[in-house]
Amino acid sequence: MKWKQMPLGPLQTNCYILWNDKKNCLIVDPGAEGEKLVSWLNEHNLKPLAILLTHAHFDHIGAVDTVRHTYNIPVYIDEKESEWLTDPGLNGSGLFGMGKIQAAPADRIITSEHTLTIDEFTLQVFKTPGHSPGSLSYYAQSEGIVFAGDTLFMGSIGRSDLPGGDHQELLSSIHDHLLTLPEETEVLPGHGPATSVGNEMDGNPFLNGF
Known about the structure:
Elements: E1 2-8, E2 13-19, E3 24-28, H1 34-43, E4 47-52, H2 64-71, E5 75-78, H3 88-91, E6 108-110, E7 114-118, E8 121-127, E9 136-140, E10 145-149, E11 152-153, E12 156-157, H4 167-178, E13 186-189, E14 195-196, H5 197-203
Parallel strand pairs: 3-4, 4-5, 5-6, 10-13
Antiparallel strand pairs: 1-2, 2-3, 7-8, 8-9, 9-10, 11-12, 13-14
Helix pairs in contact: 1-2
């Protein structure tokens, strides 16, 4: 399989496209610039099957409806943020003066950690709260990648000072779910460059001694 990182919107939130040889693909966190994303997908003859959200902050959901309605595909989200898509007060767009960023309710509500299979795609769903109460990470073991959202970054960790955030919970999520993955696993974060589990274990100052 192949994947592409596509920074979108004013906060350059990373959207990811993961596709197979059949040109079927999954979309992770379509945060903004829906027409740009759709144009790229069509240019490469990719067929989206689903939208996976790591969490529902405004900068990760701005293009959800554009992509969903263009391809008639379901949206997956954690149960603790099922109401955030429709509520600017919860998804933070009102708080940061970004206008009202909203989307229709999600089609699939994730209630537990499990193996998610969509067509030929198999991902482990981890609940990784701390940045937000319903943050999720999606681990594709066969590809050696984990879509970590705003939980873990290159040399940093997600902020926990937003409503519903919890610093200790964030550290526990990283320790229990991300640092236990093979060290060569590529961490694909919500912002900035990709990194690896091993690099963050060795050099992330926020995880020093954790």
